[in-house]
Amino acid sequence: MPDRDIAAAAARPPAPSRTRRRTLRNVSALAASAVATAAALAAGPAPAAAGTAAGVADLRSDIAALLADPQLDGASSGVLVRSLTRGDVLYSSDARTELVPASNAKLLTSAAAMEVLGPDYRFTTTLAAGEDPGDGVVDGDLYLIGTGDPTLTADAVGDLAAEVAAAGVTEVTGDLVADDTWFDAQRLSPAWDPADRPYYYSAQISALTLAANTDYDTGVVEVDSVPGTAAGAGVKTSLSPMTGNLDVAQGGSTGAPGSTSTFGVDRRMGTNEFTAYGSLPAAQTYSALRTVHEPTDHAAHLFADRLERAGVDVAGEVGRGAAPASAETVAERFSMRLDELLTPFMKLSNNGHAEILMKAMGRETLGHGSWPAGIAVAKTALLRMGVGIANVELDDGSGLARSDRLTAATTVRLLERVRERPWFDAWRDALPLAGASDRMVGGTLAQRMGGTPAAGNVRAKTGTLTGVSALSGYVRGANGERLVFAIINNGYRGAAPRGLQDAIAVRLAQFTREGTAPVARATAAQRAAPSQPQADLECTWAGTC
């Protein structure tokens, strides 16, 4: 469907599907609401009540001082702070400037997914036969049908294969056919940098994909390498989940203890040929995630292996194709609910989940599991929630695309409006919590703002690409006043200004209207960015948190 037809379809009432649908409100009324919101924001903060001006003035002065740090020389920064308790703007600077949001785009994608698909939405994976295997034999092909489940681990595949065997099936006379037609065949967004393709945060997107671990990283394999017992010995490299369509060229050598590692494992583009190279010091191991080419084939080959282990003989080959509508279900698996999936998705800033949800929205609403369809549906959902989209540009769901654009004002508007949705509590709780050491609680904020008034207080989404950093979410002031904020920094030089963002968030946690509470002004140590390798990536992508 051409883009203009998708956009037109998005404006019509959604077609019925197996997922619960909601009625779209009148678009002209939404537009009027967006205009009114824009006018209110343009008018600036409401006058402070008597006795509260000092606290607000102090806050504005402190934030302005932080943003004047030399680390942001030449950068563009959109910042907006609003009180949810009183409704007034406490600080605003370039809040309407369109900036690259990085993973702050996931705020939009996750909210739209909850609105469109619903918190109880589950992905399904089905094994179906062309003919009833009542005698234990599938005469013809067995179809493996995916709808994008990002939680389909190797263990889950084994369970599904065991269910087929438990149904009495012992033989398939035809092929194992993988059906991934729920989504389109575009695996990678054209807006993504090709240099990112080996890395798990840029994995190929398919309606049938494996999760390599319990973080539910999709479209990848875990790479583990172990050195030999002596310098010069070979290095042993393994992949997991390993399947028959993957190949590992063993390479590299064991280096002297304490030597510098030059070891790595790469995949040749367009293939599933993995090559190990370099020197791995003795007593040092190597672990990484690497993308696979055509996740559908990887999943299908693992199913074939697990069916064999379960005692089901498949006479034919492993291939791809569309299951006939008349195919009868032999076994079926359901993912966790969407409101549960939000935790690994948002806490760990999982790009694959964002793209799968974007395509799922398009498929469920417009019948097209594509980025253009999903983006059109997501924008319509944002309008339905009262979030204007005039300053929103999306080419993906994760924020990996540098062509994405978002403003601090729109981000704050979203954070305000989602509080009215029945699924808000689950959505808010999925945001990373500052200073919480548990990865599935603190997420990308687990190592930030610890030991400050923001710890256990700030719930916010991070975002990081080279030259792009963002932090947006919720915080309570020292007297319990509820605040919402968005900070988006673009075009800075050097390390990501996470320390400056943290200092602003800590200052918000100290805020009182009276201005009488003792306030520790941000020190150079507070402003310094946390030291970590690959600081131009989300810490979960770099494996540092």
**Overall pLDDT level:** 89
Strand count, sense and barrel status of the largest sheet are: 5 strands, antiparallel
H/I helix tally: 15
Shape: globular
Alpha-beta classification = alpha/beta
Order of strands, main sheet, comes to 2-1-21-20-19
* Superfamily (CATH H level) name of the largest domain: DD-peptidase/beta-lactamase superfamily
Question: What number of structural domains do the residues give?
Answer: 3
Give helix % range. 25-40%
CATH fold title of the largest domain: Beta-lactamase
| CATH architecture heading of the largest domain | 3-Layer(aba) Sandwich
Strand content is 15-25%
Low-confidence stretches: 1-51, 522-526
Distance between the termini: 41 Å
Strand tally is 21
What Rg, in angstroms, do the CA atoms define? 25 Å
| The CATH C-level class name of the largest domain | Alpha Beta
Question: Quick summary of this structure?
Answer:
With 545 residues, the protein is of the alpha/beta class. The protein is 29% helix and 19% strand. The protein has 3 domains: 51-119 and 339-517 and 524-542, Beta-lactamase (3-Layer(aba) Sandwich), CATH 3.40.710; 124-186 and 295-336, 3-Layer(bba) Sandwich (D-tyrosyl-trna(Tyr) Deacylase, Chain: A); 220-291, no CATH class.
